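Quick note —
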Amino acid sequence: MSDTPDITAVREYFGTLQNTICARFEQLDGVGHFRGSDTPSAGGGLARPRVLEGGRHIEKAAVQFTHSVGASLPPAATERNPQLAGHGFQAVAISLIVHPLNPYVPTTHMNLRFFIVEAETPVWYFGGGFDLTPYYGFVDDCVHWHREASAACSPFGDALYAELKEACDRYFYLPHREEPRGIGGIFFDDWTRGGFGPSFAFVRSVGDRFLPAYAPIFERRMNAPYSDRQRDFQLYRRGRYAEFNLAIDRGTKYGLQSGRRVESVLASLPPLAVWRYDYRPEPGTPEADLYERFLPPKWWVGGPRLVDKSGD
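Predicted structure written out below.
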């Protein structure tokens, strides 16, 4: 592959990945179907939102593809690179969120994006990653998830997974709660390592590993019996997810600042969530176990890790 940035190739890959993921989620759910429409935008851009709601196993899933063309980058895209402010740009992205119905199935998120800025010397970079937000902790799920994340990174350097895992732990954190959002995964930004060809190969490795990382966990837990207690805790923890997306997430800020359709930008929010005043789980319960053993960052693979079979 030429080392000249090729936004057409990135756009084609992200579009194909969107179709593949939507088809797999429909298969997992067994009833629900994604709906949405393609909306061309000025300059040759395209928005292709896809949303599934009210399925048998998926309460809500959004898998969004966008190709944006603009005269100036939004502030959320230039706060780390202020020298790029005022320049025209193109951006291609796929982002997804799954909010399962069963509380034993984790919520998941993935985002992959490519920016190219039309400065005197063109500037481009990739960003993205995937992370997992369980409501109830299971060691085998955590190990599987991080093993796939490590496999996505391993062809590109022995130390890469550790670097991106730690970056994910730092990013998906609610400082106002002093609390991680979930068990993490991998996260990267401003990615140009090795040039366009190697960078794009790495992004494809991450995208191609998402379904093998998530689908087996989904299938393992989607038929588990649960009660109102588990459902209530799931809705409470979804409140944390909403707080992160609205108060912290750079992708949400970018979408709102760039003038994208609000329905698409906020499609990542859960369909239902609750907030309780000063809630604290009872010691010794599975709900307390999530806070004590699963949310604190640890090395599930690739380093010293705690494996306690009582969480299986």
